[in-house]
Amino acid sequence: MRIVFMGTPEFAVPSLEAILAAGHTVELVVTQPDRPKGRKKTLTPPPVKEAALLRGLPVAQPERLRGSDTVQQIAELQPDLIVTAAYGQILPKAVLEVPRLGCINVHGSLLPRYRGGAPIQRSIINGERVTGVTIMYMAEGLDTGDMISVVEVPIADDDTSGTLFEKLTAAGAKLLAETLPAIEAGTANRIVQNHDEATYAPNLSREDERIDWSREAGQIYNQVRGLSPMAGGFTMWNGEPFKVWGCRAVDRSHAAAAPGTVTNLSDEGILVQTGKGSLLLTNIQPAGKKAMDAVEWLKGARLEAGTVFGGGEA
């Protein structure tokens, strides 16, 4: 098949590789523009662009696909199929109608649950035990199209969004390779989604990173691991953000302490009271410093038992 591939992050790279390994021709790779990255704000290409250029594939990077010259470019190519994987923009009708075999998407959840841009992170944040990858035909709505194939992936108790990302990346590429022959032959499934069961996974905001100490310790643990390694959770200490990168929920509780109160400092880390149970902070990042082991930080820190985390603006 002659294929246009559309994707942006590392999640999409193995899917691009699977298409090429299956012997199909990628006529064009469409990805997001280069973005500033890191403290020095160095302009950095997305992983899919890097992978495409290494393979000598043409690349387009419209800031906004709708109304761009790229739409006309795709129309002129007349591909058999468009494959998207975490591209980051909704495809306009003018693009959806181009390929004779349709447009398909490799989505990191078990649809119709977790439609949207952050299904991997939010599945962990919400304490799910199983997620997966769905390959679907694309429609004008947000992840509303008919499903073609699905694979389930368990979520381990210690998975972060980073480790789950790797599992789903591999599972998605494998599923895509297994699904493409049926699409080419015109025999692929079309399973209509039950829209009444739909849930959504909107992109994460700064407020999603704020720790609410009134929640249960297990819920905060899920929040932190769902945000790691990209963002982590944060609370406030001495009027500045105090990031939490690693933690674990424990049953110990200090009945007299309000949520957010530091109840113990030990060779294990910083124990903080929550709405139910306690959270042991093991890897932290005070404002202006690098992430570090909490025990090492405590050797020179002025944090005391009885300190209350939280409040303030970030």
UniProtKB/TrEMBL annotation:
Attaches a formyl group to the free amino group of methionyl-tRNA(fMet). The formyl group appears to play a dual role in the initiator identity of N-formylmethionyl-tRNA by promoting its recognition by IF2 and preventing the misappropriation of this tRNA by the elongation apparatus. Residues 204-301 form the Formyl transferase C-terminal domain. It comes from the Bacteria. It comes from Paenibacillus lignilyticus. Its EC number is 2.1.2.9. Residues 1-179 form the Formyl transferase N-terminal domain. Keywords: Protein biosynthesis, Transferase. The keyword Translocase does not apply. The keyword Heme does not apply. This is Methionyl-tRNA formyltransferase. It is an enzyme of class 2 (transferase). Belongs to the Fmt family. (6S)-5,6,7,8-tetrahydrofolate binds at S109, L110, L111, P112. PANTHER family: METHIONYL-TRNA FORMYLTRANSFERASE, METHIONYL-TRNA FORMYLTRANSFERASE, MITOCHONDRIAL. One of its GO terms (molecular function) is methionyl-tRNA formyltransferase activity. Gene3D superfamilies: 3.40.50.12230. InterPro entries: Fmt, Formyl_trans_C, Formyl_transf_N, Formyl_transf_N_sf, Formyl_transferase-like_C_sf, GART_AS, Met-tRNA-FMT_C, Met-tRNA-FMT_N. It catalyses: L-methionyl-tRNA(fMet) + (6R)-10-formyltetrahydrofolate = N-formyl-L-methionyl-tRNA(fMet) + (6S)-5,6,7,8-tetrahydrofolate + H(+).
